[in-house]
Design goal:
Blueprint: H1 2-38, E1 44-47, E2 52-58, E3 62-68, E4 71-76, E5 80-83
Antiparallel strand pairs: 1-2, 1-5, 2-3, 3-4
Length: 88
């Protein structure tokens, strides 16, 4: 019983860490993954570097994005921060 009493504060701290740090990060990552998978040709996006562009082609792991007239770049899906116009 004494050992349980000593472990109780650690269990409590782990539970707090889970609900304050780990769980919200997991939910945010899931939401971001769903947003990226729902992007289609014509959607405007903001990259993690701050570039704003329009999706021209969706591939399995990449997007082809037009950032200026006749200037296209190929981005990994991880480089998309958010959809343009959505709240940050």
């Amino acid at each position: 019983m004494e050992m349980f009493g000593q472990l109780l504060p650690f269990v409590f701290l782990i539970a707090i860490m889970y609900f304050i740090i780990i769980r919200p990060q997991q939910q945010q990552a899931k939401k971001h993954k769903e947003m990226v998978s729902s992007l289609a040709k014509g959607d405007k996006i903001v990259t993690t570097g701050g570039l704003i562009g329009e999706v021209k082609k969706v591939e399995e792991e990449f997007f082809t994005v037009e950032v200026a007239d006749k200037v296209t770049v190929k981005l990994t899906k991880d480089a998309v921060a958010r959809k343009y116009g959505d709240e940050a």
